[in-house]
Amino acid sequence: MSNTLEEWLMEEDEPSISFQNEDIDFELPNSGQLSRWIEAVIEREGNNLHEVSYIFCSDEYLFGLNQEYLNHDTYTDIITFPYTEPPLIEGDIFISIDRVKENARQFGSSFEQELHRVMIHGIFHLCGYLDKTPEEEARMRQKEDEALQSLQKLLSE
């Protein structure tokens, strides 16, 4: 008999990362390698993956979620909904592909680089990192940069 919710959840299901589309047609390249990378980042942070779902969508869809659930009247690239607290990682990560494309143009990076940054940004939120203050934002960016370096190594193998 399990003593904690974390133990029960870990016994019930294999850890999983899924990728889905809500209102767009999008295919994620290298999804297997990206899943392994995300799992490795979660483990490196001392957490346990239960289930993470990435939902890729349009600007309008994410804008609607932002209004409905966060009372924000702005466009955004990502909204993360955590369902547990670290060290157990479970949640939904909604990403606007439109916004990622726009951000890549604005920041002078490739679409893939920006997408990977946003994807791991959501994971760091699930791991308990915040980005509300300049200090938190700098720490988040450092964690993202470290994770992206490890992804480059993985993709070049």
Q: What does it look like?
A:
The protein is an alpha/beta fold and 157 residues long. The protein has one domain: Metalloproteases ("zincins"), catalytic domain (Collagenase (Catalytic Domain)). Helix content is 54%, strand content 19%. It has helices at 5-12, 31-44, 59-70, 97-107, 111-126, 134-156; strands at 16-21, 48-57, 78-82, 88-96. It is globular and about 40 Å long.
Task: Summarize it.
With 157 residues, the chain is of the alpha/beta class.
Tally of domains: 1
Question: Judging by the overall fold, what is the CATH architecture?
Answer: 3-Layer(aba) Sandwich
- The CATH topology comes to Collagenase (Catalytic Domain)
Helix segment tally: 6
Q: What is the CATH class?
A: Alpha Beta
Distance between the termini: 42 Å
- Taking all Cα atoms into account, the compactness measure Rg is 16 Å
- Share of helix among residues? 40-55%
Q: How many E-type strands?
A: 4
Could you state the CATH homologous superfamily?
Metalloproteases ("zincins"), catalytic domain
Written as H for each helix and E for each strand, in order along the chain, the element string is HEHEHEEHHH
The mean pLDDT is 94
Strand order of the largest sheet: 1-2-4-3
Largest sheet: 4 strands, mixed
